[in-house]
Amino acid sequence: MISTQKRTLPCFSMQDKVCLVTGGARGLGLEFARAFVISGCTQLVILDLKQAEADSAAKELLDSARENGIDLTGLDLIGIECDVASEESVKIAFDQTRKRFGRVDAVVASAGIVENYPALEYPFDRARKLFDINVHGAYLTAREAAKVMIPNGGGSIVLVASMSASIVNVPQPQTPYNASKAAVKHMATSLAIEWAKTGVRRHNSSPGYTLTKLTKTILAGKPELKETWERLTPIGRLAEPEDLAGAVVFLASDASKFMTGTDLLIDGGYCAI
Ligand SMILES: NC(=O)c1ccc[n+]([C@@H]2O[C@H](COP(=O)([O-])OP(=O)(O)OC[C@H]3O[C@@H](n4cnc5c(N)ncnc54)[C@H](O)[C@@H]3O)[C@@H](O)[C@H]2O)c1
User: Fold this and answer.
1) Angle at alpha carbon of residue 182, lines to 177 and 186, rounded to 5°
2) Which atom of ligand 1 is nearest to the CA of 209?
3) Closest to 208 in 3D by CA, of 273, 268, 159
4) Is 177 within 8 Å of 134 (Cβ atoms)?
5) Residue nearest to atom 23 of ligand 1 (CA)
6) Where are the domains of the chain?
7) Half-sphere exposure of residue 189: CA atoms within 13 angstroms, side-chain side
8) CB within 8 A of 163, min separation 6: which ones?
9) Strand-pair category, 155-160 with 43-48
């Protein structure tokens, strides 16, 4: 009998790859990290703002993988405290990763925040902070990743943008967030072209509404807003974080090795109407 394992395209495997996820302590980042573990990655780094949260995510990943009977032989998984908005912090985190593992093959920049204020009332220091995390954080992550990847022959960098890079969300006002994600989307395309011959591939994954702490905070006590989001999503529901995992493994793995500069929408059809 042919096992399921043998019937999986080998190019989707993350076996022997060093993976790193920013914002990996919860939400989408944690699900992407889990997807890398399930896909066989042998070294994984979880970056997040607090060391304790990165460590507890790493422990949770190991515990749940064991509970599900996943063979963890050889897996080395660490958490590193890192503020992606700080150039120094990102440099130190990649330096630690390089010293520990020698290289990095797949990086997902998932750290990001959202806030809803009408543009006329948005406190400017908060808008600046949002850009520092969402835009400069993605840039610093990509740049430091590429510095490690290029001497090692390349790798794949996935920036988590959003469908908000392509559409204007309604009814909640979030202009700086939408603009930040449009910047991330075009940054990925621009860097993809700039680095195309180095072996470094650059992609966007652009999720639609997904149930994480980020969206649950916005939806708290607002059932009518959730209904509006569901109605505007052709598939008729919001995504669960695991709905996005396969797309990120595809972009991070050799399955997409002739692709770069891609923006992959995972939005339940939202942007198609
Ligand atoms: N949830 C959605 O519906 C949705 C939709 C589209 C895009 N996105 C994007 O996906 C990404 C992840 O969102 P999520 O829903 O998982 O959010 P989340 O709030 O659940 O998780 C975000 C993670 O990023 C970390 N983080 C925040 N600022 C950081 C910083 N400066 N340095 C390091 N880590 C930091 C947080 O501690 C947290 O662990 C974000 O970029 C978000 O914009 C989310």
Assistant:
1) 150
2) 3
3) 268
4) yes
5) 23
6) 10-267
7) 10
8) 206, 207, 208, 265, 267, 270, 271
9) unpaired
How many angstroms does the Cα of residue 5 sit away from the middle of ligand 1?
A: 32
Ligand 1 nearest-atom number relative to CA 25: 39
Joined tokens for residue 45: 């780094």
Local structure of residue 207 (DSSP, 8 states): E
CA distance 37 to 66: 11
Dihedral, CA of residue 92, residue 111, residue 79 and residue 52, to nearest 10: 110
**Which residues, 6 or more positions from 111, have their beta carbon under 8 angstroms from its beta carbon?**
22, 23, 29, 47, 48, 84, 133, 137, 141
Q: Which pair of structure tokens corresponds to residue 29? A: 């980042």
- Structure confidence by residue, pLDDT tens digits, 15-71: 999 999 999 999 999 999 999 999 999 999 999 999 999 999 999 999 999 999 998
Q: Which CATH class is domain 10-267?
A: alpha beta
Q: How confident is the model at residue 3 (pLDDT cuts 50, 70, 90)?
A: very low
Q: From edge to edge, which strands make up the β-sheet containing 43-48? A: 76-81, 43-48, 18-22, 106-109, 155-160, 200-207, 262-266
Task: Specify whether the CB–CB gap between 164 and 178 falls below 8 A.
Answer: yes
Ligand 1, CB within 6 Å, residue ranges: 22-23, 25-29, 48-49, 82-85, 110-114, 133, 137, 160, 162, 207, 209-210, 212-215
DSSP 3-state assignment of 162?
coil
Per-position b or e across 206-236, b if 16+ CB within 10 A of its CB: bbbbbbbebbeebbeeeeeebeebeebbeee
pLDDT at 2 over 50: no
Q: Which of 12, 34, 30 is nearest to 22 (CA)?
A: 30
In the block, residue with structure tokens 């966007």: 204
